[in-house]
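Holo model, glutamic acid. Inputs:
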Amino acid sequence: MDYKDLANLIYKDAKNIEYYEEKYPERNLEEGAIVTRFAPSPTGFVHLGSLYQVVIAKKVAEQTNGVFFLRIEDTDQEREVENGVTNIINSLHDFGLNPDEGMTSETNESGKYGPYKQSLRKEIYQAYAKYLIEQGKAYPCFCSEEEIDKIRKKQEAAKIRPGYYGIWAKCRNYTVEEMIQKIKNGEKYIIRLKSPGNESRKIKHHDLIKGNVDFPENDQDIVLIKADGLPTYHFAHAVDDHLMRTTHVIRGDEWLSSIPLHLQLFQVLGFKPPKYAHIAPIMKEDNGGKRKLSKRKDKEAAVGYYTEIGVPKQAVVEYLLNIANSNFENWRKQNPDTDYKAFDLQLNKMSVSGALFDLVKILDISKTIISKYKAKQVYEESLEWAKRYDKELEEMLEKNKEYSIRVFNIERESNKPRKDISKWSDVKREIEYMYDDIFNKNNEEYIYQKINEKEEINKVLNEYISNYYNENDDKEIWFNKIKDLSEKLGYSREVKEYKQNPEKYKGHVGDVSMCLRVAITKRQNTPDLYEIMKILGSKRVAERIVKAIK
Ligand code: GLU
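Output:
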């Protein structure tokens, strides 16, 4: 009896690996095209760090006319949640990062290299496990959990390296006959790699981000197929990335230390290994120190957070490009209106250590991006957001479409466009005073500044509305009239004059304008007051001023 008999006993029905090698041929892509993937477990949660990997993977694939696919790694079925796959797909979609192939819903997929869900690939893994068993490169291990536990305790007590290797790997030494007998006796088993490695030898590896690294060879007889018949991540990744013809594995650097094992798996399987790029995690400042941005502790770790507060997808992606390649920021300055897709992302320019998370920066990028939108786009995107997250805003925008676009258009499309909106959840606060329903309903006080005595305020407002306001004035005349009013009431026409001789005046034209601004909007900070008054129109301006006087 030989290994072939053993393999046939374990995986009687498994196909020859040639079948799969033919079924999933090399991809017919141009030279240099990168094939890469996002390979999450279907926990539904997408971490900002994962989105970061996606941005990078999709970008390098796109840049080289390659392929970016989505593979669901669901071999750890305890971690699964309902709609986990759908949530991942939706998150990628929310950020404009749809894969070229892979899962498209919980059960559907597109592409010729599937199934793209590991639990559906059981027989493929078994075929490759059989192939290894046939050559004596993998074997059934009959150790129970208690036995493995015992081994670990002994190792701990003796202060030696833990694991199933060398003299500890007791099942690797059974003869084929013994193994066959045990299986026939009904003993439970899993499949392990018979590692050819030696811990005292080193392997050299070139990582596309981390550079040259060396590690001791792997000598652990790791589990390939678990008791439930499903593979471990290590084995599945090797088989899948080979058969899906992945050229570049781009993943979190928590996997860097698995490189000796992974390269060994490719070697024993007879596969050409892919290139690896290990990405450092996004860090967060915490009590003067640094730690990884955490799913448990930081709400900003979930990509859903950005969708919820309404940061446009482009802003999140550009922020991530920014931390991926620090020259992105400069490129953006030089190409303010170019699609980010035109930027050339380089893996070898990525930082070896993790970038520090910076929400202020994200919002700053976002603010600039939104400031370049046309009013109609601001209207459409904020309405889209409001439909999901803010019914009142939705109604406000739906009911007043043309009006709202005019409001958004204040100080837009200029050299120095307004930058008051950095996320869609800011919109209501920034524009609500332009809507009478809300303006009249809200009980906010009028908070005046310099001019703050009731009598004086009323004098300014009364004079203005009776003798100076005319809706048809152009901006220059409008402002000149405010200057005239200022002069009449004892304020300087120019700020400068007041500063030179403060004792001569009650204040300056700015104080008078502020008084009007607060009366009309209840805000001290607004975009251009002239444009606001134009949009409100004389009837509403008068109403508001009368209301303020009362
Ligand atoms: N399922 C693994 C994870 O979520 C994938 C790692 C990889 O990209 O290979 O960490």
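The CA atoms of residues 378 and 408 lie 7 Å apart. The two ends are 103 Å apart (CA to CA).
Archived with the compound record.
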